[in-house]
Write a structure and sequence with these properties.
about 60% helix, elongated, about 55 residues, mainly alpha, 3 helices
């Protein structure tokens, strides 16, 4: 029975740590920009040209 209580205590501690990390990420603005990730795949990245590949 002590082991079950210990496992519950450890799991609640881990859950509280993740909850604090989640609220910290919201407060720091991690989820502010919801528009850019959805359209990022629509923009082409400029191609990098290597001197070796164009010389052949």
């Amino acid at each position: 029975m002590i082991i079950i209580a210990g496992l519950i205590l450890i799991s609640l501690t881990i859950a509280v740590v993740f909850l604090i990390a989640f609220f910290w990420s919201i407060k720091s603005g991690q989820y502010e920009d919801v528009y850019t990730p959805s359209v990022r795949m629509l923009f082409d990245e400029p191609k990098k040209e290597d001197d070796e590949s164009t010389a052949s």
